[in-house]
Amino acid sequence: MTDTPQQTSHPVPPDERTWWKESVVYQIYPRSFADSDGDGIGDIPGIIERLDHVADLGVDVIWLNPVYESPQRDNGYDISDYRSIHHEYGTMADWEELLAQVHERDMRLVMDLVVNHTSVDHEWFQRSRRGDPEYEDYYIWREAEGEGPPNNWESFFGGSAWSYDEVREAYYLHLYDESQPDLNWRNPAVRQDIFDTMAWWLEKDIDGFRMDVINLLSKAPGLPDGDPDSEWVGAEHFVDGPRILDYLAAMDEQVLSNYDILTVGEMPRLTVETAREYAGEDGPLDMAFHFQHTKLDYDGDERWSVGDWDLPELKEITRRWHDGLADDGWNALYWENHDQPRVVSRYGDPEEYHRESATLLGTYILTRSGTPYVYQGQELGMTNAQWEDRESLADVDARRTARELLDSEQHDSFEDIADIVGYRSRDNARTPMQWDDSEHAGFTEGDPWLQVNSNYEQINVAAAREGDSVREYYRSLIDLRTEYDAFVYGTYSDLHPDHERLAAYTQTLEHPDGRVSERMLSVLNFSDTTASVDLSTTVENADLLLSNYDRDTIGPTSDHEPYEARIYRLE
Ligand code: NOJ
Fold first, then answer.
1. For the chain, what percent of residues have pLDDT higher than 70?
2. Quick check: keyword ATP-binding in the entry (predicted)?
3. Domain boundaries, the chain
4. Can you identify the CATH homologous superfamily of domain 23-117+188-393?
5. Which pTM was predicted?
6. Quick one: how far is CA 145 from the chain centroid?
7. Would you tell me how many other CB atoms lie within 10 Å of the CB of residue 344?
8. Which ligand 1 atom is nearest residue 114's CA?
């Protein structure tokens, strides 16, 4: 019997396939990945030496955090020269070698683009503060009038968003640290300089950009005061500002559209509606990171707090984003990055159920449609570290907050604030990568710039090469994702939205005429006790494809062990 052409046709025709939709991205934080020269700071030759670890996981793309020249106040998010490599990380020749080695392994390289602000050390700022006519309008300056700064906007890191510059005798705006002045995107010369810089990197054959706080570029004219009760005062005047879509459309037209690349915007306060404008079919970008699921463990809106979180809320966010972007847009799926505490310490149980909860959380981002991003060490289940005192912290944000909390006189000692600052600090994500159980976890032969997590003897890459490690499980998940298009192009459906402990969802891939081609079911118990949900009818005749417990039979049992994840193929 021969199939009709319609029956054999694939539900995703070749011209609708897109490499960045089918990719899994691995994020490398260069300062903490691998140090090749013993100065305690990760570098590019170190990354090259360890590239096989990344390639072996089966990922397709590497996103490299900023490696440009920088005084490193904010670990590279304060750039002093967009076209050179930070000297502690290596040379341009090292970077070119990295790119070649990445491509040789059939992976792609996405670079960080940080163009909302530069470092105060950037030549543009130096010339701007001296009033050089070519650069005087490159940043957002205001004369001092009356008492205090020009408006009440706050820096994301706390305090006023304005600092007074003695040289220019004026205030400049910085939505982040005072060493990170905001560029004036209203100035066409700034836009042109940035677009030229982007093209310069793209001509080197990179494969895309992750765009830092890219929806903050446009500030409301007149820079009006913000709502003083808001969590980030002024945000309504610079998040998704009036000209942002024009700027990004111009960037797309002049630069991005000339290349076959991946573009992902990091966008504070992104909603499904704005995501469609930025990264829908007609939007300038491919996808965007939102933060909604990373705030579940806040107490209210307050970032420096720790609250309880619940699963129905996570599922509601997941549903909203899947349904909202199903016909227009694409999801970027992630738990961790260099700004987030380790996920197993937030939404898992690193003590009793380390492996189970780390693999379960991995399952959640690797079995849904969208492009998953895995942050270095996540594939080992790396955990938050212990912070003894303020000096042990390196993050500009955490150190400032710790100082503020201690100065506030509500807290006597670091011990009082360790639970909050220690839990939230971005340093948790930035402790050195744990390669083996030798001193400093094999990260460096010198003194690491940031302490190594004390659990490195148990949690490390060498140990994870064994059979049932978190890393091996991630590898299997990535393999599975490559094998079944339903995980990439399928439609997400939540079977039990209100279940307090279990997530059960399908990804269904259909032919254009409605016939089901592939249907996958994932069942995840997010709790540390056995939980039940009746799936007996759903899993009849199903294949169990992967489980983080040692199971090889289907068993339509309804009991699920603590932090158990199972993935079935239903059709
Ligand atoms: C977001 C980056 O991810 C973070 O690390 C940085 O501090 C801010 N943007 C400012 O660039």
1. 97
2. no
3. 23-117+188-393
4. Glycosidases (3.20.20.80)
5. 0.97
6. 40
7. 30
8. 11
